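Weekly modeling sync, notes
Attendees: S.R. (lead), two postdocs, one rotation student

Agenda item 3: backlog of single-chain predictions. S.R. asked that every request posted to the team notebook include the full sequence so nobody has to chase files. The rotation student volunteered to paste the first one in as an example of the format we agreed on. Action items at the bottom.

Example entry:
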Amino acid sequence: MKEVKKAVAAKKEEAKAEAAVKAVKAVKKAATTAKKVEKEVKAAEKKAASTAKKTEKAVKAANAVSAAKKAESVVKEVKAAEKKAETAAKQAEKEVKAEVKQAEKEVKAEVKKAEEVKKAPAKKAEAEKKAPAKKAAAKKAPAKKAAAAEKISLQYLGKDIKIDDIKEAVKKIWTGELKKKASDLESIDLYLKPEDNAAYYVLNGSFTGKVDL
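Predicted structure, as returned to the notebook:
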């Protein structure tokens, strides 16, 4: 009996020792697995951080490209607006020049008519003077009178438009808007068009424009 009990106790001790060895091995294996998992977790975190940085850079680059395209679009719009304004300015200049030329033609036609009307009685008077030539020769020529002061106004639709006021306005344009010296102004040609409520001018034969009546 004693031998049997000893054998059983020995087997129990052997089983305990074997179980202890297995437990130690299991603990070591678990520790190794834990370290491996920890390494994998750290590698994954590092990779995720790297990916996040790359993504951030990509987003910034995309935003920069979008901003550049938007700025380019704005520049194109500005250039188009400038071109449109330049075209409009040229067209307006052409229209003003055309109006000035038309006004000049009309005024010249009116002046020509007025001169023809003046010449008709002058010729008649000259013919009448030639008949009594002898008597006229005997008379002394009258002394020349000083030139009369002139003040020309245009009355149209209730307006009293003074030519001198228009001249002063044009002179101010010459020295103000055009930045020219008053002494450089050699000639002023005015063409009045009451129906346009405007007076067209040509300064020194080249600078054209208009002023409101």
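Discussion: group reviewed the output briefly. Residues 1-101 form one domain.
Action items: rotation student to repeat for the remaining queue; S.R. to check formatting next week.
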